[in-house]
Amino acid sequence: MLRILTGFVEELRAVGIPVSMVETIDAARGIEYVDLGSRSALRAVLGSTLVKNARHYSAFEAAFEAYFSAVGPRAGSVEDQARSEDARVLLAGLSGAAGLSGGGDGDDASDLVSALLRALQDRDQALLQAVVRASVDRLAAIEPGRPVGGAYYLYRVMRRLELEKVGAELTDVAARDATSSLERRLVSEEIERRLTEFRQMLRSEIRKRLVADRGPQAVARTLRRPLVEDIDLMAATRDQLVEAERVVHQLSRRLATRLSQRRRQHNRGRLDIRRTIRASLSTGGVPVDPRFRRPRPGRPEIVLLCDISGSVATFARFTMQIVYAIAAQFSRVRSFAFIDGMDEVTSFFGPGTDFPTAMRRIGAEAEVVWLDGHSDYGNAFATFRDRFLEDAVTTRTTVIVTGDARSNYHDANVEALRDISRSARALFWLNPEQQRYWDTGDSIMGAYSPWCDEVSEVRNLRQLERFVEKVSIPTTRPIRPIA
Amino acid sequence: MPTASPASIAAALEAVGYLPDDHIAQVVFLAERLDKPILVEGPAGVGKTELAKALASVHGRRLIRLQCYEGLDEAKTLYEWNYRKQLLRIQADAHTDWSELAGDIFSEEFLLTRPLLEAIRSTDPVVLLIDEIDRVEMETEALMLEVLSEFQVSIPELGTIEASSRPMVLLTSNNTRELSEALKRRCLFLHIDYPSIERETAILVARVPELPRVLAESMARIVASIRSEPIRKPPSISESLDWARTLIALGIDQLDEAAVTETLHVLLKYQADVDKVAAVLAKS
Lengths: 483, 284
Fold this sequence. Notes:
heterodimer; A: alpha/beta; Rossmann fold; 4 domains; six-stranded mixed beta sheet; B: Rossmann fold; 2 domains; two-stranded antiparallel ribbon; 14 helices; about 15% strand
């Protein structure tokens, strides 16, 4: 057990979860108190001693599946637990057929489908478990030794079981009894949940087979997923973006709290004599408790220029979302969006804005497209200089540009950016692309970078958070002498 | 005296009106066995503070609660000399010899104990709840850390005070900032999320006894459905309890779209959220 544990801890560290020596010892001590046959108990022990951040749970779960998939009640007397008479018949049929498993596409899966329908309808866990095992036996056609994570096997099983049709059929049956549209909605959500659970069971059954075949270490390595804050936003899958979405919200709230705390602690200010003397009256005139004037540090003004063309739109949205969440830290935030034209979009955001909706509205209502809707940084900057520069940018303004600087071979118009940079206090550029791709193809990052105070590669939430925090620290002098 | 198994802890907590899920019971059991503080994290209103209260009543211990806020310092967490009283003592008897006086004004009579010291000095074992620890600054956190690992407090004028009994410690956090690694290392981590439909139904029935079970179940399903929408503040358990009480007060025993839409403001705290969910309900 101890050897498995150290292997498991190493796997967690490899994903990026910090696990200390003390925590490993705690886990080892904790294991002594639990029933090792119980998966949930083991998960509770390892989860509470080794992982101290809820964001790391999904990575933990993946590793746990690989290392401890064999733990848990084994097959056996499931037939006795089945709910109804026909369920028992179905079960017997399944276990009979399991013997002649060959797998592959020729096998007929209709008995599995009907058993599945019955199990989901009656919420019969025993039958469901049997269906899971039999389907993997017969339909997955697992090839030993292949270094895969099992996603393809899962797909193959689900396709043969025609899971979508099963879902539709269940919904039809349930909808017949539903009296109101609210009821129908709840029922279909319930079915969706049961199907998700079934998919989850299939996945862990497949992983169990993979682990039996190749050992936990190898499987864990194939399953390894980056932590949310390290997901590359430009290459993220839809699921990852949903996850990132959830974290952005949390992250910006945390950032806001931290910044306002630091602002208040930053400098205690000068002694407030009047209030100190007033307070000393309660201690007989002895000034035990000195009072201070609250300092009022200057707040930077922010102007955001975001490229919202297809490839970098998500990144622009995350940046805006974070900046607006901590808007209280700035004396003013104005935002502009561009593709090949530039328009002010400040009015689309307010307290409680729903960002996906706002972004859609911007695409439809703001004048971000000038000619053909392909990024043209040169024209966008020129438009900004001519229409907004004087009004929006002062020597107290920090300008933040986000975009990949891929201008589709249009004229870079460096002078426009130079003019913007000269009138601002500072100009930062966030590029969501990997640094080694800059200045390849139509990227003209190199042309613009001399006029930026800093060009940062910001590809994930961790880097984005760090950047925004840096910008919002109040400073009294200009970051850069005005040229 | 630690409880025998996770199941018996679950049963004991249930008896005092807190319905833990399997994971919560397991972690509490482990914390008792390993004698470690539990760091409870999760969205607001899922019963983090309730858990501490329930544990206190299960073990028949006194609950000492330290509510954290920004600017909380040593004087508010550990102890403070009552300097007003000390000044009074000095002025009342101006002719006493200083050395005698000094010994006198730095005695227990002039000491104001604050929650942490109180938890340590208590002769009966207590449950110490440090609520919303993410609100205090790093320095205060470090101070608490010291107390939590040594279970002793040194007061220069009085000497070191050691715990006569080990308190059971729970810390809660709303995750508004990252806690220090050192603190996390010393605690067991318990993430409490929104309950499953079954558990929420059970909680509703247990807490609002006059609520019919059927209604509780459909409430739990609707609340779960609302939580899956992308809204700013998903309803918590305490809000669904409020909702249950509202429905009873209004005499509603059947939930349809109209009834839900009318009472949505009990569940949701932002007008934008109310509008959004109402739109979704109308569409379905």
